[in-house]
Structure to design on (254 residues):
């Protein structure tokens, strides 16, 4: 009887640890998935240069096109329930860049990409 | 003597769970490594504008090394016609993951039941500008 009680106790402990392990791995995978979606959205948005401004020698993003493309990539890669926000930092002409944040529940992934000019 | 016999039986039952804990971690690490390989594959696809035979073979080789499976079991599908900068590329990679349960025989689980297919179905944006320098 004593053995059985100890075994049941140990079994409960192992099962609890295993459920923590599964939860931790699931969270890690979710974080990775969101990071991937954010990277992809940011890389896609960084391709959307404003052609008009580029012709004038100014590097800026076509915000409407970039925002739409980033939202589409997030929806395709992370699902409809992922929330996305995008910020543009193109005042400094040295390194214009944008930042994409993708969130689902309490997990947020952030990705930053520089302006990708034509021919680069 | 009775205590010894019951203790051995208890330890055997507990050992199955402890080994499964390790196996869960191994499976997680393998899937992470496959994800990493698919991500590298995606970067090449992005530059080349589509899935090519060369990058498909390279990915398959990497996955075979990670999962110890046959190359025929790894399926790569998606867009194989080059598209230019800003266009979408779809790619699907399916791999078999075996040995999910450590003591499968102990639980009377067959080899066919002790496996699942892990699928990565994603999109990327092409950066191909139509010249050799990519």
């Amino acid at each position: 009887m004593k053995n059985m009680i100890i075994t049941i106790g140990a079994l409960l402990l192992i099962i609890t640890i295993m459920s923590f392990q599964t939860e931790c791995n699931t969270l890690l995978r979710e974080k990775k998935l969101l990071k991937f979606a954010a990277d992809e959205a940011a890389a896609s948005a960084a391709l959307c240069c404003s052609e008009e401004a580029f012709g004038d020698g100014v590097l800026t993003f076509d915000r409407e096109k970039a925002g739409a493309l980033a939202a589409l990539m997030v929806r395709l890669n992370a699902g409809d329930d992922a929330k996305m926000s995008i910020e543009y930092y193109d005042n400094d002409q040295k390194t214009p860049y944008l930042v994409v944040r993708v969130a689902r529940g309490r997990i947020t992934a952030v990705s930053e990409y520089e302006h990708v000019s034509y021919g680069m | 003597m009775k205590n010894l016999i019951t203790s051995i039986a208890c330890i055997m039952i507990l050992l199955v769970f402890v080994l499964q804990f390790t196996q869960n971690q191994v499976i997680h690490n393998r899937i992470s490594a496959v994800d990493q390989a698919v991500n590298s594959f995606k970067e090449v696809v992005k530059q080349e504008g589509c899935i090519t035979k060369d990058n498909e073979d390279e990915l398959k080789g990497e996955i075979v090394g990670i999962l110890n499976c046959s190359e025929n079991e790894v399926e790569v599908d998606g867009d194989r016609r080059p598209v230019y900068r800003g266009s979408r590329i779809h790619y699907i990679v399916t791999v078999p993951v075996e040995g999910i349960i450590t003591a499968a025989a102990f639980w009377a689980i067959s080899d066919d039941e002790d496996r699942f297919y892990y699928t990565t179905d994603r999109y990327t944006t092409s950066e191909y500008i139509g010249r050799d320098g990519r």
User: Anything to note?
Assistant: Chain A touches chain B at residues 3-4, 6-7, 10-11, 14-15, 17-18, 21-22, 25, 28-29, 32, 36, 40, 43-44, 47-48, 69, 73, 76-77, 116, 118-119 (CB under 8 Å). Residues 2-114 of chain A form one domain. Residues 60 and 117 of chain A are 10 Å apart (CA to CA).
